[in-house]
Amino acid sequence: MNGQPRGEGQDKKKFLEPTFHFVTSLMKIGEDYTTDKIPVTEFVKGGQLLANFPNFHRSAAKGYEKTPLEPGDYAQLAADDDGIVATVPGYPKVQKIRRKDVSELVTVVSIEPLLKISPDNMQVGLAIHPPLEAGRSLQQEDLEALITEQKIVFGIDKDAIEDAKEFIQSGVKEFKHITIARGQQVGRSTDAYLRYDLEIGPIAGKVLEDGSIDFRERRIMVGVKAGQCIATKIPPVQGKPGIDIYGEETPAPQGKDIKIQLLNDVKFSRETMEVKAAKDGVLSIVNDNVIKVCAQQTIRGNIDYTTGNIESMNCVTVNGNMQPGFKVTAAGDIVITGEVMSAKISCQGNVVVKGGITGKNSCLEANGDADINFIEQGTLKCGGIAVVRKQSYYSNITAGADICFHQSSIIMGGNIIAEGNIVLGNVGSEQCRPALIAAGVIAERLTHFDSLKAKVVEQQEAIIQWLQLYHGSSTSKKVKNMEKELAETKLLLLRVNMIPGTELYSRAGGPENEQLPPGQAPNSGGGIPIEKIKIDVKGTIFAATRIQIGNCTMTLEKTVSSRTFKLHPNGKRIIVIPNKR
Questions:
Q1: Tens-place pLDDT, residues 288-347
Q2: In this structure, what DSSP letter does residue 482 have?
Q3: Cβ–Cβ contacts within 10 Å for residue 115, how many?
Q4: Beta 14-16 vs 5-6: how paired, if at all?
Q5: Cα–Cα distance between 346 and 330 in angstroms, integer?
Q6: How far apart are CA 344 and CA 363, in angstroms?
Q7: 404 vs 339: CA distance, rounded Å
Q8: Where are the alpha helices (DSSP H) in 412-550?
């Protein structure tokens, strides 16, 4: 009832309902006349009065109060605060809701806008409601004028508008939504890259166009001649600017440039953007942007007491095994055709081990990629992609990019930590110790996190021991200082950010100017797109395996097969998705 008093009994307050200034009719929609009638409101323009309390002073004199009235979406209080007006053209809607701080039901008047504009201002939809016999409808309106009034000027679909006009004039008793304008999306920018002008062969672990992983044997020790063009730098290209429906431009982000690091006998021409070899040698490419040409050194046999340790400024090929206790260090790539047994490898390029790596004292470190057959109780650390073809048995593998296991491979225990994605075969068994599989994680920060946890336990025990040993009071100055240090350590623990590209203590606005652990370089920016990081299991992964993506962790409750682990869209937990067959 519009503008009518509503009594609440002799002892209760009396309320006056607002007067609504638009027509509402009950109507059956569509051709199915078995459905119930629904309320349909007439079309109103922006600025039109929707509801108020006219001549309220007369009812107030009789002891009535106003029913609580509020503006909803696309509505606002009138200038005299005595009513509600529409802010955009559309269709009024009335709701009764209950507020905690108001005893009476609150009447909320809102508008369903005629023109529904997407949050990014890149699309406009036209909402058409059935016309009322006794009310205003779009049949009496100039549709183009309504669009112009809302300052929509770009991407207008004239054909869609003509279709809308035809539907409106037909008088069909249905609701319809028609997209009448679309903005121009921001064009994709391309980052700078190196286009190699010679065949460097497949890089094992790279994702192919069909989504599979390239596990072909890596071509390494590629020979080059003096003056030969190795690669050409292709500069970044900025995409086309976006234009929204209001005609406002949004520039495309700048494509990222790359910094080419040239080592040894390599030259770069800024005029031609070409990278050329300065002399004959073999090529070493590290992480796509470090290029060096080295001489090739070949060891025809095992690394043992006959050869001693090898330290070379060149690329090194060992046609044999590495015996326990020995070490090979090289400025270029290293290829071991045999096995590595409790030995150490360190190179500034890429490393390929065609045999196995065994022994707790085996340690491989490479600035670039690492391609191995299998590893047992050893350590592998690389700055690029790590490829494991058969097995990892209680070993620690960390990579600055992706880690790729062959789909038939087996992982028993150990830690597998990548700053990028991880592809796995089979993980665990019913008897072995659970493995840690962590993607989108900086391994050094995980170590730092564990050291902080140990420090918390140590500080807690120190407080308990001091109280027991000296029968001290928990309110003493000594205990308060110890508790303060404990609270500071706990805060650091909460703020450690595992995600590559972030500051160490940035997870919850960590303290500024904190000292990083020894050897830890500072990171800046917002980090990698952690929402795109995933762990793809091709085989079976057993229960109790620990999974981590960025700062989120989980322990697998049951054994599953052919699953992908990724972050939930809210970024607060890990979800498990079956792989498509």
A1: 778 878 888 889 999 999 889 999 888 899 999 999 999 999 988 999 999 999 999 999
A2: H
A3: 19
A4: antiparallel
A5: 7
A6: 5
A7: 20
A8: 443-470, 477-495
CA torsion 539-339-419-210 (nearest 10°) is -50
Half-sphere exposure at residue 404, Cβ-oriented, CA atoms within 13 angstroms: 21
Positions of the chain with pLDDT under 50: 1, 8-10, 205, 509-525
DSSP 403: E
Interatomic CA distance for residues 224 and 218, integer angstroms: 17
How far from 535 is each of 410, 558, 565, CA to CA, in Å? 15, 17, 5
Q: Give the span between the Cα atoms of 322 and 300, in whole angstroms.
A: 12
CB 65 within 8 A of CB 15: yes
Report residue 385 as tokens.
């992609």
Provide the token pair at 581.
């067959």
Distance CA 396, CA 378 (A): 7
**Rounded CA separation 92/20 (Å):** 10
Compute how many other C-beta atoms are within 10 angstroms of the C-beta atom of residue 524.
9
User: What does the DSSP assignment read for 537-559?
Assistant: EEEEE-TT-EEEETTEEEE--S-
Distance CA 261, CA 275 (A): 11
C-alpha triplet 559, 561, 563: angle, nearest 5°: 110
Burial classification of residue 374, based on how many CB atoms lie within 10 Å of its CB (0-12 exposed, 13-18 middle, 19 or more buried): buried
Secondary structure class of 381 (helix, strand, coil): strand
| pLDDT of res. 296 | 83
The crossing angle, in degrees rounded to 10, of helices 443-470 and 477-495 is 160
Question: Which structure tokens are listed for 156?
Answer: 């207008």
Residue 33 has what pLDDT?
55
Question: Among 143, 123, 129, which Cα is nearest to 92's?
Answer: 129
Distances (CA, A) of 506 to 157, 419, 510, 531, 554: 46, 17, 5, 18, 22
Cβ–Cβ under 8 Å, residues 565 and 512: no
- Specify the amino acid at residue 406: H
| Each residue's pLDDT tens digit, 245-254 | 999 999 998 8
- Alpha carbon distance 386, 204 (integer Å): 9
| pLDDT for the residue numbered 525 | 44
In the chain the domains, ranked by start, together with CATH numbers, are: 5-113 (2.40.50), 115-182 (no CATH), 449-490 (no CATH)
Q: How far apart are CA 577 and CA 472, in angstroms?
A: 54
Residue-level pLDDT at 216: 55
Cα distance between residue 153 and residue 147, in whole Å: 8
pLDDT at residue 79, rounded to an integer: 83
CA 276 to chain centre: 38
555 bridge partner residues: 546
DSSP string, 125-194: EEEE-PPPTTS--GGGS-HHHHHHHTT--SSB-HHHHHHHHHHHHHT-SS-EEEEEEE-BPPPPPB--EE
Residue with tokens 């009024």: 92
Choose among 227, 222, 238, 229: nearest CA to 195: 229
Amino acid found at 331:
A
End-to-end C-alpha distance for the chain, whole angstroms: 61
Residue type at 143? L
